[in-house]
Globin domain-containing protein (Sphingomonas qilianensis), 149 residues
Amino acid sequence: MSQPLSPQTMALVKATAPALQQHGVAITTLMYQRLFVDPSMKALFDMAEQESGTQPQRLAAAILAFAQNVDRLDALKGALERISRRHIATHIRSEHYPAVADALLPAIRDVLGDAASDEVLAAWGEAYWFLADILIAREQELYRESELA
Ligand code: HEM
């Protein structure tokens, strides 16, 4: 399990919630554009959901919910479980997570512009890995359970 986020990091992430509410889909749409430059990443996704905008909306909602609840993750338990199960169904592994970080963080910077100071981006970088570690741990458990079944 990853180290808890510091109160300062949580405050910085939480403070971006209004901007994410406004620009979340722009951020995730840009993130997917960056991610899909790599065909092996693109192949993991259902393109019909991308083109309908459903997937960017779901990811934007998840990121916003995380920003709003970063100091009380219990509120996200159900959502995290659903995401992990979806990831298992689409064969997502821990080695896929760095590419999403490399696509998401610049997308946050590009869309939020001046609102995304270096400090804010560093906080989001930490928060991404905190969330990713929770998902990865649960996904490893689910993969293990399915191998035993
Ligand atoms: C902290 C990181 C991540 C978050 C917060 C996240 C969030 C989500 C959410 C909210 C969904 C939709 C679940 C639903 O059906 O309601 C989803 C699905 C999905 N995620 Fe992630 N995800 C993360 C990392 C990744 C990574 C690293 C990959 C791999 C490149 C990935 C690939 C997918 C795929 C393939 C789907 C299924 C949707 C489709 O087929 O288009 N995710 N994720």
Summary: The chain has one domain: 7-148.
